[in-house]
Sequence to fold (254 residues):
Amino acid sequence: MAKAPPPRTRIARSDATTVTIRGKSLMDDLIGKLSFTEMMYFLIKHRPPTPAETKVLDACLVTLMEHGFTPSSLVSRMVHDSVPDQVQVAMAAGLLTIGGVFVGTMEGCAKILKAGIEAGGDLDAYCTQVVREHIAARKPMPGFGHPFHKPDDPRPPRLFQVAESVGLNGPYVQLLHRLNGIVDREMGRHLTINATGAIGALMLEIGIPAEIMRAIAVVSRCGGLPGHILEEMEMPTARTLWALAEEHVPYEGV
Fold:
């Protein structure tokens, strides 16, 4: 059996007087010089983003941060009502709802787009094959459709405008639009590109790996939950939600 390489890190270290992150001094090179968005990109990609990459990533983070009473915000409010003195518990509980159904589907769409660009060749044939495979397996197409935003999700067009304004509406965005047309054709109805589909394409354009995209969604939604928890402190809703469940979910046991 081959010997495992020794454990190591390239991210950060600290001692009594210094903190070094990716070879940069936290105090001299980073604090006051990189924004939160730039710092996150720097940690992921080992380099600061360009202004264009920063604008696109920032737009993605803003897009996913808040969407009203969603599972993440509702769970955070309910948990805060049960554990009012531990705000981090309510935050963590809400973030656990980010997965393959809500918010966290961009990596599935991104993997489809990435595979298509890497394969090259006839992209229409590739898209047709992918869509037909999903239809045959009765699997939803990641990045398409929305339960509330019909016929079209209003967020992707604005995201595409931001990307175009900085020259980052490249091959992944173009393939997403091509895929959208074939989704509609093969399904016989219109399915909107949703926000996570657009964000999956844009993150590929700025070099974010598909495998880490759900983590970006978690960071974004984390930024929105403090507002919900503070509002729950000031204007409680959790007990009302509990009462509504009692009223509208009948017991049918023997």
Observations:
- The first strand starts at residue 12 and ends at 14.
- Residues 116-205 form a domain with the Cytochrome p450-Terp; domain 2 fold (CATH 1.10.230.10).
- The radius of gyration is 21 Å.
- The mean pLDDT is 94.
